């Protein structure tokens, strides 16, 4: 009696009109798409775990930074900032802030013959 009350002609007609096989196929397609997305995420996660593991690609790159960067430690900096270089730097004359005075004799292979007049860069 309970089954008969659920499976009425009206209900069966409603199910027939709803095209149940097409609805089931649509649900299966959606589930397949979700499953493919999850598989891609798992693949990416596995790749990251291999990269970050000790000895992995990214781990080796990060480990190399302290040995390949110059000027980030006192030893590397001391090797380029010598007393002789400091003396030479101190000997340079600055008459205008943040500009270095130089005795320019040529520019792009052309001799500079200017004398500081209105056209100070007269090329020869």
Fold and architecture overview:
- With 124 residues, the protein is mainly alpha-helical.
- The protein has two domains: 2-91; 92-124, no CATH class.
- Helices cover 60% and strands 3% of the residues.
- It is built from six helices and two strands, in the order ααααααββ.
- A hairpin with a 2-residue loop joins β1 and β2.
- 0% of the residues are buried.
Quick summary:
The chain is mostly helical and 124 residues long.
pLDDT < 50 runs, ≥5 residues: none
Tell me the number of structural domains: 2
Mean of all residue-level pLDDT scores: 77
Number of strands: 2
Please report the number of helical segments: 6
Class by alpha and beta content? mainly alpha
**Major β-sheet annotation:** 2 strands, antiparallel
3D shape: elongated
Give the end-to-end Cα distance, rounded to a whole number of Å: 114 Å
Order of helices and strands: HHHHHHEE
Q: Output the radius of gyration.
A: 39 Å
Helix content: 55-70%
Within the largest sheet, what's the order of strands? 1-2
Portion in strands: under 5%
């Amino acid at each position: 009696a309970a089954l008969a009350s659920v499976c009425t002609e009206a209900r069966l007609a409603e199910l027939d009109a709803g095209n149940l096989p097409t609805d089931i196929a649509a649900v299966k397609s959606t589930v397949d798409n979700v499953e493919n997305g999850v598989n891609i995420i798992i693949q990416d996660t596995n790749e990251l775990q291999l990269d970050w593991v000790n000895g992995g690609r990214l781990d080796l790159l990060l480990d190399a930074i302290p040995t390949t960067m110059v000027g980030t430690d006192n030893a590397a900096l001391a090797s380029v900032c010598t007393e002789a270089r400091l003396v030479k730097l101190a000997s340079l004359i600055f008459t205008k802030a943040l500009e270095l005075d130089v005795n320019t004799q040529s520019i792009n292979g052309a001799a500079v013959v200017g004398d500081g007049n209105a056209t100070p860069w007269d090329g020869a």
